[in-house]
């Protein structure tokens, strides 16, 4: 199975959906920020590993605490994922912090400020 095959794309989207549900409703760890989003998931073609890109709305400390909480709950998340999905292998999940959403919000704010300054001149 190639990395960009239809089957792999479908598995990625299913894992992403279930992972979002597990993080949102199943995990009770107080370290995990309430606004935690799974932005992307890449499951390896052999279904052994998975990279989950996590975006946290908040400061650097909240992001760090959330990543620690997810890392400590990795076994529970993998078990819940195995129960929800019918896959030959349940992938080992690696959580990666994704700052693209915050970067986009920062750039949007800067563009708005430039536009506002341009209109007043």
What does the model show?
With about 120 residues, this protein is an alpha+beta fold. The chain has four helices and three strands. A three-stranded mixed β-sheet has the order 1-2-3, with helices on both faces. The longest helix has 21 residues. The protein is globular. The model has no long low-confidence stretch (mean pLDDT about 90).
Short description:
This protein is an alpha+beta fold and 121 residues long. The chain has helices at residues 6-26, 60-72, 74-84, 100-120; strands spanning 36-43, 49-56, 92-97. It has a 3-stranded mixed sheet with strand order 1-2-3, sandwiched between helices.
Essential attributes:
121 residues; globular; alpha+beta; GMP Synthetase, Chain A, domain 3; 55% helix; three-stranded mixed beta sheet; 18% strand
> Averaged pLDDT, please?
89
Q: What would you call the shape? A: globular
Structural class label: alpha+beta
CATH H-tier superfamily? K homology (KH) domain
Please mark out the parts with pLDDT under 50 across 5 or more consecutive residues, or reply none. none
Query: What is the distance, rounded to the nearest whole angstrom, between the alpha carbons of the first and last residues?
Result: 58 Å
Indicate the CATH architecture: 2-Layer Sandwich
Total of helices: 4
How many strands appear in the DSSP assignment?
3
